[in-house]
Amino acid sequence: MSLRQMEYFVTVVEEVSFTRAAERLHVTQPALSHQIKALERAVGGPLLERLPRGVRLTAMGRAFLPHAERSVRSAAQARRAARAAAGARGGELHIATVHAIAVGILPDVFARWRTAHPGVALVLHEYATTEALEDRIERGTADLAVGPPPARWSGPVVPVGAEDIVLVVPFDDPLAGRASVRLQELADRFWVRCAMEPLVDGTPFLDLACARAGFVPRTAVRTEHTSTAVRMAAAGVGVATAPAHVVRGAVGEDCAVLTVDPPWARPLAVFSRVEQTGAAAAFTELLTTTWPPGPRTGG
Length: 299
Known about the structure:
Blueprint: H1 3-15, H2 18-25, H3 29-43, E1 48-51, E2 54-57, H4 59-85, E3 91-98, H5 99-104, H6 106-116, E4 120-127, H7 130-138, E5 144-147, E6 157-169, E7 180-181, E8 190-194, E9 199-200, E10 203-204, H8 205-212, E11 218-223, H9 226-234, E12 239-243, H10 244-251, E13 256-271, H11 278-290
Parallel strand pairs: 3-4, 3-5, 7-13, 8-11, 8-12
Antiparallel strand pairs: 1-2, 5-13, 6-12, 6-13, 9-10
Helix pairs in contact: 1-2, 1-3, 1-4, 6-11, 9-10
Protein backbone atom coordinates (compact mmCIF):
# COMPACT_ATOMS: atom_id res chain seq x y z
CA MET A 1 0.00 0.00 0.00
CA SER A 2 1.11 3.59 -0.63
CA LEU A 3 0.70 6.91 1.10
CA ARG A 4 -1.25 8.14 -1.92
CA GLN A 5 -3.74 5.30 -1.57
CA MET A 6 -4.26 6.10 2.11
CA GLU A 7 -4.74 9.78 1.25
CA TYR A 8 -7.36 8.81 -1.32
CA PHE A 9 -9.12 6.57 1.20
CA VAL A 10 -9.20 9.28 3.89
CA THR A 11 -10.55 11.82 1.40
CA VAL A 12 -13.36 9.48 0.28
CA VAL A 13 -14.33 8.96 3.93
CA GLU A 14 -14.29 12.71 4.62
CA GLU A 15 -16.36 13.52 1.53
CA VAL A 16 -18.64 10.43 1.88
CA SER A 17 -18.54 10.29 -1.90
CA PHE A 18 -16.21 9.03 -4.64
CA THR A 19 -17.35 11.84 -6.93
CA ARG A 20 -16.63 14.68 -4.49
CA ALA A 21 -13.37 13.05 -3.39
CA ALA A 22 -12.20 12.79 -7.01
CA GLU A 23 -12.99 16.47 -7.55
CA ARG A 24 -11.12 17.46 -4.40
CA LEU A 25 -8.10 15.32 -5.32
CA HIS A 26 -8.14 16.45 -8.97
CA VAL A 27 -8.22 12.88 -10.31
CA THR A 28 -10.75 10.97 -12.38
CA GLN A 29 -13.29 8.85 -10.55
CA PRO A 30 -12.15 5.61 -12.29
CA ALA A 31 -8.55 6.31 -11.21
CA LEU A 32 -9.69 6.92 -7.64
CA SER A 33 -11.76 3.73 -7.58
CA HIS A 34 -8.79 1.77 -8.95
CA GLN A 35 -6.50 3.03 -6.18
CA ILE A 36 -9.08 2.23 -3.47
CA LYS A 37 -9.52 -1.30 -4.81
CA ALA A 38 -5.74 -1.73 -4.88
CA LEU A 39 -5.58 -0.59 -1.27
CA GLU A 40 -8.32 -3.04 -0.29
CA ARG A 41 -6.41 -5.87 -1.97
CA ALA A 42 -3.29 -4.90 -0.03
CA VAL A 43 -5.20 -4.77 3.26
CA GLY A 44 -6.99 -8.02 2.59
CA GLY A 45 -10.64 -7.00 2.52
CA PRO A 46 -13.20 -4.28 1.79
CA LEU A 47 -12.73 -0.97 3.58
CA LEU A 48 -15.74 0.82 2.10
CA GLU A 49 -19.28 -0.24 1.36
CA ARG A 50 -20.54 1.40 -1.84
CA LEU A 51 -24.09 2.71 -1.39
CA PRO A 52 -26.52 4.25 -3.90
CA ARG A 53 -25.85 7.62 -2.27
CA GLY A 54 -22.34 7.69 -0.87
CA VAL A 55 -20.15 5.24 1.00
CA ARG A 56 -19.96 3.70 4.45
CA LEU A 57 -17.01 2.25 6.35
CA THR A 58 -16.88 -1.48 6.87
CA ALA A 59 -15.62 -2.96 10.13
CA MET A 60 -12.16 -3.24 8.54
CA GLY A 61 -12.44 0.33 7.32
CA ARG A 62 -13.26 1.64 10.79
CA ALA A 63 -10.21 -0.13 12.19
CA PHE A 64 -7.98 1.08 9.36
CA LEU A 65 -9.12 4.74 9.26
CA PRO A 66 -7.31 6.22 12.32
CA HIS A 67 -4.01 4.69 11.22
CA ALA A 68 -4.46 5.97 7.67
CA GLU A 69 -5.32 9.44 9.00
CA ARG A 70 -2.22 9.45 11.17
CA SER A 71 0.01 8.40 8.27
CA VAL A 72 -1.38 11.02 5.91
CA ARG A 73 -1.17 13.80 8.47
CA SER A 74 2.30 12.75 9.60
CA ALA A 75 3.50 13.05 6.02
CA ALA A 76 1.93 16.50 5.75
CA GLN A 77 3.56 17.46 9.04
CA ALA A 78 6.92 16.26 7.78
CA ARG A 79 6.63 18.47 4.69
CA ARG A 80 5.52 21.47 6.75
CA ALA A 81 8.23 20.93 9.34
CA ALA A 82 10.96 20.77 6.69
CA ARG A 83 9.86 24.05 5.12
CA ALA A 84 9.16 25.76 8.43
CA ALA A 85 12.51 24.67 9.88
CA ALA A 86 14.26 26.40 7.01
CA GLY A 87 12.07 29.48 7.36
CA ALA A 88 10.96 28.88 3.80
CA ARG A 89 8.25 31.17 2.51
CA GLY A 90 5.10 29.10 2.20
CA GLY A 91 5.98 27.00 5.23
CA GLU A 92 3.16 26.43 7.73
CA LEU A 93 3.00 25.68 11.44
CA HIS A 94 -0.30 24.21 12.64
CA ILE A 95 -1.30 25.06 16.24
CA ALA A 96 -4.15 23.31 18.05
CA THR A 97 -5.81 24.70 21.17
CA VAL A 98 -9.10 25.18 22.98
CA HIS A 99 -11.26 28.23 22.31
CA ALA A 100 -10.46 29.99 25.61
CA ILE A 101 -6.72 30.01 24.88
CA ALA A 102 -7.30 31.03 21.25
CA VAL A 103 -9.25 34.07 22.46
CA GLY A 104 -7.20 35.08 25.46
CA ILE A 105 -3.56 34.12 24.90
CA LEU A 106 -2.69 33.45 21.28
CA PRO A 107 -3.62 36.71 19.47
CA ASP A 108 -0.63 38.61 20.92
CA VAL A 109 1.69 35.63 20.39
CA PHE A 110 0.56 35.23 16.77
CA ALA A 111 1.12 38.95 16.14
CA ARG A 112 4.67 38.72 17.51
CA TRP A 113 5.27 35.63 15.37
CA ARG A 114 4.26 37.43 12.17
CA THR A 115 6.85 40.10 12.89
CA ALA A 116 9.66 37.67 13.72
CA HIS A 117 8.85 34.90 11.19
CA PRO A 118 7.02 36.40 8.20
CA GLY A 119 7.84 33.44 5.96
CA VAL A 120 6.08 30.83 8.12
CA ALA A 121 2.28 31.02 8.27
CA LEU A 122 0.33 29.90 11.33
CA VAL A 123 -2.81 27.78 11.03
CA LEU A 124 -5.05 27.62 14.12
CA HIS A 125 -7.23 24.61 14.98
CA GLU A 126 -9.75 25.26 17.78
CA TYR A 127 -11.53 22.58 19.84
CA ALA A 128 -14.32 22.68 22.37
CA THR A 129 -12.72 20.42 25.00
CA THR A 130 -9.26 19.39 26.15
CA GLU A 131 -10.19 15.78 25.36
CA ALA A 132 -10.85 16.68 21.72
CA LEU A 133 -7.62 18.68 21.62
CA GLU A 134 -5.55 15.73 22.81
CA ASP A 135 -7.29 13.35 20.40
CA ARG A 136 -6.67 15.55 17.37
CA ILE A 137 -3.03 16.25 18.17
CA GLU A 138 -2.53 12.50 18.64
CA ARG A 139 -4.04 11.96 15.19
CA GLY A 140 -1.59 14.44 13.69
CA THR A 141 -3.97 17.31 12.87
CA ALA A 142 -1.47 19.91 14.12
CA ASP A 143 2.22 20.25 14.90
CA LEU A 144 1.76 21.66 18.42
CA ALA A 145 -0.99 21.83 21.03
CA VAL A 146 -1.36 24.62 23.59
CA GLY A 147 -3.51 23.74 26.60
CA PRO A 148 -3.61 22.09 29.99
CA PRO A 149 -0.84 19.45 30.18
CA PRO A 150 -2.27 16.02 29.31
CA ALA A 151 -2.33 13.45 32.10
CA ARG A 152 -0.82 10.72 29.93
CA TRP A 153 1.34 11.75 27.00
CA SER A 154 4.30 9.98 25.42
CA GLY A 155 5.63 12.98 23.50
CA PRO A 156 7.34 16.21 24.62
CA VAL A 157 5.50 18.47 27.09
CA VAL A 158 6.90 21.97 27.74
CA PRO A 159 5.40 23.87 30.71
CA VAL A 160 4.33 27.42 29.82
CA GLY A 161 2.97 28.81 33.07
CA ALA A 162 -0.45 28.98 34.68
CA GLU A 163 -3.68 30.80 33.95
CA ASP A 164 -5.58 32.41 36.81
CA ILE A 165 -9.20 31.23 37.06
CA VAL A 166 -11.56 33.97 38.24
CA LEU A 167 -15.26 34.51 38.87
CA VAL A 168 -17.31 36.86 36.70
CA VAL A 169 -20.32 38.84 37.93
CA PRO A 170 -22.10 41.98 36.61
CA PHE A 171 -21.16 45.44 37.83
CA ASP A 172 -24.36 45.76 39.89
CA ASP A 173 -23.74 42.53 41.80
CA PRO A 174 -23.45 42.99 45.59
CA LEU A 175 -19.98 41.41 45.45
CA ALA A 176 -18.74 43.57 42.57
CA GLY A 177 -16.78 45.95 44.78
CA ARG A 178 -14.66 43.21 46.31
CA ALA A 179 -11.40 41.78 45.04
CA SER A 180 -11.96 38.22 46.28
CA VAL A 181 -14.69 35.96 47.62
CA ARG A 182 -14.87 32.65 49.43
CA LEU A 183 -16.75 29.99 47.50
CA GLN A 184 -19.12 29.34 50.42
CA GLU A 185 -20.56 32.84 49.92
CA LEU A 186 -21.93 31.74 46.53
CA ALA A 187 -23.87 28.70 47.75
CA ASP A 188 -27.25 30.27 46.88
CA ARG A 189 -26.20 31.58 43.45
CA PHE A 190 -26.96 30.29 39.97
CA TRP A 191 -24.04 29.49 37.67
CA VAL A 192 -23.26 29.72 33.98
CA ARG A 193 -21.57 26.42 33.12
CA CYS A 194 -19.31 25.87 30.12
CA ALA A 195 -18.54 22.72 28.15
CA MET A 196 -14.84 23.67 28.35
CA GLU A 197 -14.83 23.51 32.14
CA PRO A 198 -11.83 21.37 33.16
CA LEU A 199 -12.38 17.85 34.43
CA VAL A 200 -10.65 16.24 37.40
CA ASP A 201 -10.82 12.44 37.19
CA GLY A 202 -13.87 12.78 34.96
CA THR A 203 -15.73 15.24 37.24
CA PRO A 204 -16.17 18.96 36.37
CA PHE A 205 -13.84 21.07 38.48
CA LEU A 206 -16.58 23.41 39.71
CA ASP A 207 -18.63 20.49 41.04
CA LEU A 208 -15.64 19.27 43.04
CA ALA A 209 -14.78 22.71 44.39
CA CYS A 210 -18.36 23.47 45.42
CA ALA A 211 -18.70 20.05 47.04
CA ARG A 212 -15.66 20.83 49.19
CA ALA A 213 -17.36 24.13 50.11
CA GLY A 214 -20.49 22.25 51.19
CA PHE A 215 -22.96 22.87 48.35
CA VAL A 216 -24.02 21.78 44.86
CA PRO A 217 -23.89 24.54 42.20
CA ARG A 218 -27.22 25.39 40.59
CA THR A 219 -26.98 25.75 36.81
CA ALA A 220 -28.74 28.63 35.06
CA VAL A 221 -27.47 27.88 31.55
CA ARG A 222 -24.83 25.78 29.80
CA THR A 223 -22.69 27.18 26.99
CA GLU A 224 -20.21 25.76 24.50
CA HIS A 225 -17.58 28.50 24.72
CA THR A 226 -15.97 30.27 27.65
CA SER A 227 -16.34 33.70 26.05
CA THR A 228 -20.10 33.12 25.80
CA ALA A 229 -20.24 32.14 29.48
CA VAL A 230 -18.42 35.36 30.41
CA ARG A 231 -20.88 37.50 28.48
CA MET A 232 -23.81 35.66 30.07
CA ALA A 233 -22.35 36.33 33.52
CA ALA A 234 -21.73 39.98 32.70
CA ALA A 235 -25.42 40.27 31.76
CA GLY A 236 -26.49 38.84 35.13
CA VAL A 237 -27.53 35.32 34.10
CA GLY A 238 -25.33 33.75 36.77
CA VAL A 239 -21.79 33.50 38.10
CA ALA A 240 -19.22 32.16 35.63
CA THR A 241 -15.72 30.81 36.04
CA ALA A 242 -13.16 31.70 33.38
CA PRO A 243 -9.45 32.27 32.84
CA ALA A 244 -8.63 35.90 33.61
CA HIS A 245 -7.18 36.46 30.13
CA VAL A 246 -10.45 35.35 28.52
CA VAL A 247 -12.42 37.88 30.55
CA ARG A 248 -10.24 40.67 29.18
CA GLY A 249 -10.50 39.33 25.63
CA ALA A 250 -14.22 38.58 25.72
CA VAL A 251 -15.83 41.60 27.35
CA GLY A 252 -13.05 43.98 28.29
CA GLU A 253 -14.13 46.00 31.30
CA ASP A 254 -17.88 45.28 31.03
CA CYS A 255 -17.99 43.08 34.14
CA ALA A 256 -16.58 42.65 37.63
CA VAL A 257 -13.88 40.05 38.25
CA LEU A 258 -13.42 38.31 41.59
CA THR A 259 -10.55 36.15 42.72
CA VAL A 260 -11.48 33.00 44.61
CA ASP A 261 -10.06 32.72 48.13
CA PRO A 262 -7.90 30.62 48.07
CA PRO A 263 -6.96 31.40 44.43
CA TRP A 264 -7.54 29.01 41.53
CA ALA A 265 -4.97 28.43 38.80
CA ARG A 266 -4.57 25.96 35.94
CA PRO A 267 -1.19 25.01 34.42
CA LEU A 268 -0.60 25.39 30.69
CA ALA A 269 1.84 23.59 28.42
CA VAL A 270 2.84 23.07 24.81
CA PHE A 271 2.83 19.42 23.78
CA SER A 272 3.51 17.55 20.57
CA ARG A 273 3.87 14.04 19.20
CA VAL A 274 7.55 14.44 18.24
CA GLU A 275 10.50 16.49 19.44
CA GLN A 276 10.07 20.18 18.65
CA THR A 277 12.57 21.59 16.15
CA GLY A 278 12.77 24.55 13.80
CA ALA A 279 9.62 26.66 13.70
CA ALA A 280 7.87 24.50 16.30
CA ALA A 281 10.65 25.06 18.82
CA ALA A 282 10.74 28.78 17.97
CA PHE A 283 7.00 29.11 18.58
CA THR A 284 7.25 27.34 21.93
CA GLU A 285 10.11 29.61 22.97
CA LEU A 286 8.11 32.70 21.95
CA LEU A 287 5.10 31.54 23.96
CA THR A 288 7.12 30.73 27.07
CA THR A 289 8.81 34.15 26.98
CA THR A 290 5.55 36.12 26.57
CA TRP A 291 3.33 34.13 28.97
CA PRO A 292 2.31 34.62 31.67
CA PRO A 293 1.80 38.38 31.36
CA GLY A 294 2.41 40.78 34.20
CA PRO A 295 0.29 40.67 37.36
CA ARG A 296 -3.26 41.97 37.17
CA THR A 297 -5.54 42.92 40.02
CA GLY A 298 -9.20 41.95 40.16
CA GLY A 299 -11.98 44.49 40.26
